[in-house]
Amino acid sequence: xDLLKQLESKMQALVQQRNQLRDELxxxxxxxxxxxxxxxxxxxxxxxxxxxxxxLEREREAVKEQxxxxxxxxxxxx
Length: 78
Fold this sequence. Notes:
This protein is mostly helical and 78 residues long.
């Protein structure tokens, strides 16, 4: 009888441990999903920022060309 009680006690402890591990796994899955969404959001934002940077670089080059053109025109006048 003692042996059966010991086995039952160990089995209950193992079932409780399994349930705890299952809960931890679910929590990790949820955290991973949230983290995955956050990473996707950050990647999308990075793409937007890089596109904006490229646009600003083009605009800067256009302004440089305009300034150079104005300076050439002033030199021709002066």
